[in-house]
Amino acid sequence: MVGKIFRKVFGTKNDRELKLLRKTVEKINQHVDAFSELSDEQLRNKTVEFKERLAAGESLDQLLPEAFSAVREAAGRSLGMRHFDTQMIGGMVLHEGKIAEMRTGEGKTLVATLPAYLNALTGEGVYLVTVNDYLARRDASWMSPVYLALGMNVGIVQSHAVGGDSSFLVDDEGEKPVSRQEAYAADITYGTNNEFGFDYLRDNMVLRLEHKSQRGLAYAIVDEVD
Prior knowledge:
Elements: H1 2-10, H2 13-29, H3 32-36, H4 40-55, H5 60-79, H6 85-95, H7 108-111, H8 113-120, E1 126-130, H9 133-149, E2 154-157, E3 167-171, E4 174-177, H10 180-184, E5 188-192, H11 193-203, E6 219-222
Parallel strand pairs: 1-5, 1-6, 2-5
Antiparallel strand pairs: 2-3, 3-4
Helix pairs in contact: 2-5, 2-6, 4-5, 5-8, 5-9, 6-8
């Protein structure tokens, strides 16, 4: 009885968390006009500014409202798609390391660009983990214009069984085959759970550090986590 009264007055835990997230969405939306007035070069330079502020002591959470607004503006210019408020909430949930349940067609590929960009500001790399090579290549190619508009590059790691080149880099010059190390050194790297996992195991068997493919494990977003 007491529990029911408490939930009626204060809401459930999810209700309270959503209320906090919506407040952050309001902060993000406050930057809409300012970011829409930036030139392409000024928008790109925001990444440099964010990294400098991060190095000066600001946290990712403090940068989040502006960083998410920058990604939304970049997506609007490069893809003609702008994140909805609900997608902003999904991005925040992923940034917090939690599971965000989204149905097919709700834009989870676009949602992932928000926390991916934010966490890539640390310079430690972000991994986007998909279930197969096709989705990894497709999602990277589809979303790379957003990251490029913000001055970041994208790596793609494919199965060696595909034949031919198995790792690529997407930058301002387009997509090109690169070494495994270069793909993993990108700001954001797309690949499958199998490739990330086996490359990690292979790295733990090398005799020399320079033969490792991956760098440290900092932040990852896992698609179809269930």
